[in-house]
Write a structure and sequence with these properties.
two-stranded antiparallel ribbon; 3 helices; 2 strands; about 10% strand
């Protein structure tokens, strides 16, 4: 699947969580709404891989220093605090579900949104 191609249509019992590794357009997983532990593990692995890419890109921009680096650090801390508060609210209200699998899968999907957005922003 390339970046410009439309995503495939999935049955309603599935939600789409896609990780784009290194801009190569490698869609990693399609997680069912009732995920099993293997699917969760694959999603966690893909999130970790993409997070490491974002960390590497951020380190590269921070090493250069200057006002842009300060702004990036402020943005990073603000995003992390906001993401953690939002996830906490989702957990407390039951938005992520009640089973351990649903909660973990929802948590991974929650963080994946920010990671994907940051990789796209930092990669351009």
């Amino acid at each position: 699947m390339g970046g410009g191609q439309a995503a495939q249509q999935l049955p309603p019992q599935y939600c789409r969580v896609t990780f784009w590794l290194g801009g190569l357009g490698l869609g990693m997983t399609t997680t069912p709404k009732n995920p099993n532990w293997f699917d969760i593990g694959m999603d966690a692995w893909a999130l970790a891989a993409e997070s490491n890419m974002v960390i590497a890109m951020r380190i590269g921009s921070l090493v250069q220093g200057g006002p842009a680096a300060v702004q990036e650090v402020e943005r990073m801390v603000t995003e992390k605090v906001a993401a953690n508060i939002a996830l906490g609210c989702d957990l407390m209200t039951g938005k992520l579900g009640s089973s351990p699998e649903a909660i973990i899968s929802g948590s991974i999907a929650h963080y994946a949104k920010s990671v994907v957005a940051n990789r796209k922003r930092l990669g351009s």
